[in-house]
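Appendix B. One record, verbatim.
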Amino acid sequence: MKSISPKVCSTMAVVVTLVVAAVIGHLYSQNHCLQMKWRQEQRLGGEGGGHGTGTGTGVGDGQGEGEGSGTDKGSGDGHGRAHVAFDKQGFYNAVNNQKVIPQQYIRQHKEVHETIYVFVRIDTNGNAVEQYVESGDDPLLREEAMAAVNRALPYQNPTDDIQPVTVPVRFDLSEGTDDDD
């Protein structure tokens, strides 16, 4: 096996050093370009924006401003909508206020303690786009639960989205009472 002369080793070391220096220089150059781009964006102006959440109706404004390292000042305006939640409890109450225990059921049973669960998807106009009974055994009570949901509609839906809701329709009647709900 031949040995490598000191002159060749020295030349190879210089070449390797130059390649490493070039790679490091390239990485530094990329990083420097990114920093310069960021500084230029800061000189041209900042960006602003606004964001808010909460419950209510109406239109909300967002304000923002920013300053860069340059001579100009930036600012921004934004308009947004307040997030409005669907009032599920209010809908539950509206449905349960509309239910009536069918007279045929009262004649056949001394007591009733049953909850029928009705699934309904309410559009932005407050109308049902889908509706079905999820659970409940008695056919008469299932029918009345669906009818109670229909009587409670349209129901205000300010969310700008279709709302899926499972409504518990509670039927309670004890022996000796003549209440309809």
